[in-house]
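Hi L., both proteins are below.
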Amino acid sequence: MTAKLTHFDDQGRAAMVDVSQKPDTARTAVARGRITMRPETLALINEGKIGKGDVLGVARLAGIMAAKRTSDLIPLCHPLMISKVAVDLTPAPPDAVEIEALIKLTGQTGVEMEALTAVTVAALTVYDMCKAVDRGMTIEAVRVVHKSGGKSGTWDAA
């Protein structure tokens, strides 16, 4: 009999879910979000005039690195052998950068947390690199838009 998947042990304490009985399957997750800013800030990013350097390039790398370290950041999250991480940042005039992360692996648990972490850290990096010119930026609408694999199969956001 397969053990019940839960974040609680027999004493009701928080614990990492035991996924040892689950089969390995190909799993994918996509998350999206955006950081909204003043149009002048987006123009500076697009023109490469932010004093800290290539904002979108650095944020892309930060998102990739964060996805790989998700288990260090989120309590009870499994460390995973991710096989693919792609983080894309796209200027969305007049006042935003859209962020998308795609994560893949073959394993016993999904990669939704890794995709969400990648998007969030990429957005935070944009904020950090641009805060000297725009402290009013907002990080918005971070959510999973696709997941596939595992027992629950494929799910897409409406």
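That was the first. Here is the second:
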Amino acid sequence: MRPSGRDLSEMRAVSIETGVTKHAEGSCLIRMGDTHVLCTASLEERVPPFIKGSGQGWVTAEYGMLPRSTSSRMRREAQAGKQGGRTVEIQRLIGRALRAGVDRNALGERQITVDCDVIQADGGTRCASITGGWVALRLAVNKLMKAGDVITDPLVSEVAAISCGIYAGQPVLDLDYPEDSEAGTDGNFILRGDGRLIEVQMSAEGSTFSRDEMGRLMDLAEKGVSELVAAQRAAVA
């Protein structure tokens, strides 16, 4: 029995509310159970120096957790004078995941920065950030296309992510914090809407896993991502 009472292959409740901020070109608030993330996409008519003059665009991301997004207050990273290793790793993951669904030539020489701010955390914040980040990115690109600044849609597919793991000896979908903290195996699966894999992160957190178990987790991930892609499409329709 899962702590939440969910079936092994059951997602947490997912909702995506769009247009939640006034100034960003694209924004949404994604809720996956008790994990809530504010995602905004900001357009800039410039690119990093390493691709300047190439005609290609760039999509990057930043990630952060609010001080009271968890059960006890955490110190703002700005107070420490630098970002922690976890933050840097997650925002790089979000950026490269979203870029996997972008035709950078079609985007043109401009940059879109996706900011993911965790308001409330209960496991799976990086997955919620990627899933909500794509919605914010989609809305920002829609504005570019409506203005005629982009002719061909640069978004070739949706991008979504879900966690799966071995909890109490059973493969389960969409880990919340009580499961994530005790899972024997933990994995994050990032896929495009067309089913193509972008990245899989799996590790033994307390017990090793078999190839068969990895395959069962992959099956769960495909199911979960298909549900998330449906929610993304409904949100931007």
